[in-house]
Amino acid sequence: MLGEYRIEGRRAAEIAASVERAVGSGGLEPGQLLPPMRELADRLGVNPNTVAAAYRTLRERGVIETAGRRGSRVRPAPATTGRDHIRVDVPEGVRDLAAGNPDPALLPPLAPVFAAAAAEGDREPVLYGNVAVDPGLARLSRAELDAASVPEGPLAVLSGSLDGVERVLTAHLKPGDTVAVEDPGWGRTLDLVPSLGLRTVPVGVDDEGPRPEDVRRALAGGARALIVTDRAQNPTGAAVSAPRAHALRAVLAEHPETLLIEDDHGHGIVDLPLHPLAGTTRHWAFVRSVAKAYGPDLRLAVLTGDEVTIDRVRGRQRLGPGWVSLLLQRAVVRLRTDGGLDTRAVAAEYGRRRELLIGALAERGIAAHGRSGMNVWVPVPDETGAVARLLHAGWAVAPGARFRLSAPPGIRVTVSPLREGETERLADAVAAALGPAPARSYV
């Protein structure tokens, strides 16, 4: 059952650590069956309750999952390994379209705004007990949220979108609860949920966002939370349309106790309007980061939501990091007001690159998806073969396994690094890698 690996330990913490070390090192592989609790207890000479406590700890950490009489197994994507191991090592000379980064040429200069923010801090240093949200950032963010029809709510500032998602989930849910997630969806989210001891249920995605019938099925089946990417969905580029938002709000109205989390990380690089779902349920949260528009190292996101949710998030934040640096917050305000970045032009440029690639692939009989953002999703019959052949041809793309639970296979191509004249050559390489297979869809 365990091959060469031997679980060790006398106490629950030691047994759990032994299993976790093995998962992290590869000694225990995803999907591998663990011994029944009584069998392992006899082998280790401990009480079965000790092993039960160890397995419970591993479940809560997202390392294993238990399916009643079918026993306990290592999770398909355990929190100790994550999906980052499902990646492509990019050799020298190969064009990297797999990393998912914005184009550095489309990012604003940071030195002037940080210098101005630092000078303000020198004049009036930030000390313990200061406000956690810069008033200028609060005013600017609230105005932008009002313009996008996001409901009124208190604000918090966190270290990126995923930090916000994690804090909202832990503010309301307990280990064993189920979260409906997009499939295909952002790999870090698909790893984060089980790492918190929560279960995932996949919701299909098409170009207009989560499919309402899948959301209805997930919520009717007991999912307590739903995570939706409003625009620039990673990896498919989906964006919630007005008709889809109307349909999703109708489904959520049937389940008003659902915890709704919306991620609008594409703000600033998307040329499509926002159609928020916020306010449909009793507890909701809407998070908007600056990483895509201003740079991944700017670990800042603004979170709003209902009063209970934001109060819980801010209370827990106070007991940990306390606040996100006001130096960073003030620099972001300056980026938005006088940083010299034309977000409409940036969004249009990413849109142009996406459309060029999607059009070139269509001319070669290949269906591709990318309604917004900087990624294009290409359904393929064989991910491994497609990725390997493209790598051999000089193009690194991301395997869809990083982003899928049960959705059909595909590859993600990030268009931000593409330069003039490269699109046709890339489309030729994709067509050669896929061969004459008919066009496919991920929906």
Structure write-up:
The protein is α/β, with parallel strands linked by helices. Helix content is about 40%, strand content about 15%. The chain has 15 helices and 15 strands. The protein has helices spanning about 10-25, 35-45, 50-60, 110-125, 135-145, 160-170, 185-195, 210-220, 240-255, 290-295, 305-320, 325-340, 345-365, 385-390, 420-435; strands spanning about 65, 70-75, 95, 155-160, 180-185, 200-205, 210, 225-230, 260-265, 285-290, 300-305, 375-380, 395, 400, 410-415. The strands form 4 sheets. Strands 4-11-10-9-8-5-6-7 form an 8-stranded mixed β-sheet, sandwiched between helices. α6 packs across α11 (about 305-320). The chain is globular, with a radius of gyration of 23 Å. The two termini are about 35 Å apart.
List keywords for this structure.
three-stranded antiparallel β-sheet, 443 residues, alpha/beta, 15 helices, eight-stranded mixed β-sheet, 40% helix, globular
Low-confidence stretches: 437-443
Q: Strands of the largest sheet, in order across it?
A: 4-11-10-9-8-5-6-7
Mean pLDDT rating = 92
| Cα radius of gyration in angstroms | 23 Å
Biggest beta sheet attributes: 8 strands, mixed
Structural class of the secondary elements?
Answer: alpha/beta
Give the beta-strand count: 15
DSSP helix count? 15
Gap from first CA to last CA: 37 Å
Order of helices and strands: HHHEEEHHEHEHEEHEHEEHEHHHEHEEEH
Portion in helices: 25-40%
What's the shape?
globular
- In terms of DSSP E residues, the strand content is 5-15%
